[in-house]
Amino acid sequence: MSVERSIAAFARARNVIAGGVNSSVRAFKAVGGSPIFMKSGSGAMIRDIDGHEYIDYILSWGPLLLGHAHPAVVKAIAAAAQRGLSFGTPTETETELAELVCAMVPSIERVRFTSSGTEAAMSAARLARGYTRRDKIVKFAGCYHGAADVFLIAAGSSALTLGNPSSPGVPRGTAADTIVLAYNDAAAVDAAFAANPEQIAAVIVEPYAGNMGLVPPKPGFLERLREVCAREHAVLIFDEVMTGFRLARGGAQERESISPDLTVLGKVIGGGLPVGAFGGREEIMAYLSPDGPVFHAGTLSGNPIAMAAGIAMLKAIRDDATLFDRLEVLTTLLARGLSELLGKHNVAHRITHAGSMFCLYFSDAPVSDLAGVLKSDTEFYAKYFHAMLDRGVLLPPSQYEAAFLSTAHSTREVERTLEAADAALSQLSVSVG
Ligand code: KE4
Question: pLDDT of 72-87, one tens digit each?
Answer without folding.
Answer: 999 999 999 999 999 9
